Every structure is written in structure tokens, then in C-alpha cells.
Amino acid sequence: MPPLRLIDGTLVKQGAEAHVYKSTFLYPNVPCLIKHRCISEARLLNRCRSMGVLCPAVYFVDEKRGEIIMEWIEGPSVRDFLHNYMDDASDPGKDENKAIDVRLDALMENIGQTIGKLHDIDTIHGDLTTSNLMLKPRESPGTRILDTADTSLANSDVVLIDFGLGQVSSSDEDKAVDLYVLERAFLSTHPRATRLFDIIIDSYKRNCLGSSVVLRRLQEVRLRGRKKSMVG
């Protein structure tokens, strides 16, 4: 197969690990994401998908050009979704907001299950924030999750993206740090959603075989983090 060229690509992210473009793969109606300089990420993505962890499919790898062409996930990030939720849920007593809370709790359960599966296969994400958790509708590629009241939330999958800092590791410390990074994301970015992280942890316990050891290590990581913040 001849080298694939970036045609009408739009730069969507430029970071230390990679440049990220949105383009199309083979056909104009198949959106894809193209990343530069992180071929090892393709191996992690293939490993995760082969073991049942939801993440973007890898379409093509060009090692000479240092490019990965992968599935474009059409949906909001959990970060954006939670921001919208916090804006909408100004009156928790309303019936519609109670219904949203039920679906939101189910979403947190799903996130905990996804991370539990990831750690069960000894894979570390490395940058586990709510920006790297996407909501992908199950029905069809054209279905969109428009807002927090949309019933399609109940029919959406949590997809992990951006494994540029990921690695294969059985270390309980590495897994605990993954969880700590996510916890800090909730506390700093979604301060009103603290209880949601507790739901994630409860789900993680049920879906990760070594969760008890990892969570004990998480307590140690938290303590080190607090000491570091006190020292400055």
C-alpha cells in the first residue's frame, strides 16, 4: 500500500508528544485522526482493543513518516459533558435533573468499569483525565449526544483516547497514579462533582481483580501529593 498523504487535514492539537489532525481515511465519509511521532501508541491501542477495552481503532501505521491513522471518535469528552451538566443542574430538586443524575451515575459506573478493564490487562494510560474519556453513541455514526438531558447518554460507550504517555505495566503504583490523576481532574475541573469519583472507585473495585492493592497504594499516593502541595 503506498504511503498515505494528509489531505485537507485540520490541526486539532499540538503537544509535546504529537501533532494531531482530523482528516478522512480512503473515503470522504470516513473521518479519521492522524497523529505524528508516537508509533508506540498504536501498539497500545491494538492491545487494548484486542482485550475488550474501548479505544479508537487503528486504521494504518506509517512507520517511516511516524504517523498513525486511527478512528475519529465523534462525541463529547466527559470533561465537556460534565461542564454542561453542572451548568444545567442548577436546581437539583427538579424531576428532570433527578433523571439526569440517575443516568450520570450510570456513566460513572461505566467509567470505573472501563478503567478496571484497562488495569486488569496491565495497561497504564498515563494521562487519565476527563478530557481523554469520550462518549461515543452506540446507535450510528451520525447520532450525537447534544446535552445532558439527551436520553442517548444511556446508550453511549466510554472510549479512552490519547495513549501517547501510556505503557504496559503491572505496577500497582502506576495504576494508583492513573487513578490519582483522574481524581485530581475531578477535584480541579469539576469541584461540584466530587461524589461522582466515589462512584467510579466503587465500580473500579468490582471490575479490577487487583483493586484492593491498587486502592491502598492510591491512599499513599494521595498522602504524598498532599505533602508535596504543603511544601510547595
UniProtKB/TrEMBL annotation:
Record carries keyword Lipid biosynthesis: no
In this chain the Protein kinase domain maps to: 1-232
An example of a GO molecular function for this protein is: protein serine/threonine kinase activity
Q: Which InterPro entries does the annotation name? A: Bud32, Kinase-like_dom_sf, Prot_kinase_dom
Cellular component, GO annotation: cytosol; EKC/KEOPS complex; nucleus
Q: Which UniProt keywords apply?
A: ATP-binding, Cytoplasm, Kinase, Nucleotide-binding, Serine/threonine-protein kinase, Transferase, tRNA processing
Q: What is this protein called?
A: non-specific serine/threonine protein kinase
Classification lineage:
Eukaryota, Fungi, Dikarya, Ascomycota, Pezizomycotina
